[in-house]
Design brief:
The protein is mainly α and about 55 residues long. The chain has one domain. Helices cover about 60% and strands about 0% of the residues. It starts with 12 loop residues before the first helix and ends with a helix.
């Protein structure tokens, strides 16, 4: 995944529960072929494929 996100460090626990902080770990686990998709439609199709492999 060439678009890794970095989670910040915060003093307040409430900040850790914000959607953008919760999604970082999952985004970074996505395969590169999903993240590097050339279009939104391709991203959705590849994401569906990647998620179906997890189930």
């Amino acid at each position: 995944n060439s678009f890794k996100l970095k989670a910040g460090r915060f003093r307040l626990d409430i900040r850790k529960k914000v959607f953008t902080m919760r999604v970082v770990k999952h985004w970074n686990r996505l395969p590169g072929e999903v993240v590097d998709a050339p279009s939104l439609e391709a991203f959705k199709a590849r994401l569906d494929g990647a998620l179906s492999n997890l189930i």
